Amino acid sequence: MASRENKWGKIKRGLAKRGKILFWATCIFTATGFLGRFFMLFELTSHFRMQYFVILLIAGVIYCCKKKWILLSIAAVFFIANVAVILPWYVPDRDKGADSYSQPLRLLFSNVHTGNNNYSSLIELVGRETPDIIVLEEVDNGWVNALKEKKLSDEYKFCEFCPRRDNFGLAVLSRIPLKDVNVKSFCEVMVPSIVAVIQIPKSELLLIATHPVPPATPGYYSWRNEQFEHIARYVSNDPRPCVIVGDLNLTMWSYYHDKFLAETGLKNARQGFGIKPTWPTILPPLFIPLDHCLCSSSIKVINFRTNGWIGSDHLPFIVDLLPPVGDR
Which terminal Cβ of the chain has fewer Cβ within 10 Å, N or C? Predict the structure, then answer.
């Protein structure tokens, strides 16, 4: 009996020790997440605000029950810091936008994952949602062939396919006429982006489908940021309303997300609709919002939502937009 009690005591002490390590690590990462402009690893810690929120909430309840007031106060400070950057995404956008709007536009985005061959799930999702424009990333020749075999490209007559063996292939399919469609590279590493002009009644929209490299190394980190800088200049020189969509390999809490919005005058379509995490589907406790739709402030966002799993490590999202009549 005594040996069992000793064993249980060791387990409790071990759990308590790990809990303290997790608590202090969460406090440190909460702070370093605000310093992402200075160091690559600091920026990586900015992405897990929802996880920090949950951990600190649990820690606060435990410390309150145990009457550990100093630790409770520390937990409360860092908890509030995370709430301060999470809560605004649930507040509706108060931007009045344009004075008049053209027809609604539904866009479906999915990072389908190059190794995923669950083509039918995407086709079924398209059938349910009937988007006007489809943007796909991590597209290889298998995906292009599947889309053509399912006659999706017959329904979406305006298409641009840029398949690749790596994770940077792209595809744009549209019911709505597209013009000036071209494949560009906005950074030294030469990953493609598809740029096109969407022709809607009484207006045109600039569409950019892009997939920066993940900041897994200092070189990739630099290339991703370079891509944002070049796209920002490109968008700033075009007077038309703009929609940028893609797996941007950062979250809304990244310094570089805010910097990009400040330089372009765009907004994140998630505003008012919540966090909507999209990656990684294989590990839900680490879910973070990596996939984004950024658009001009003159474009009204009617809805933004994620949708069903299609076999990828990313969830697709659907965004309903009301473009303005005329320039932004």
Answer: N
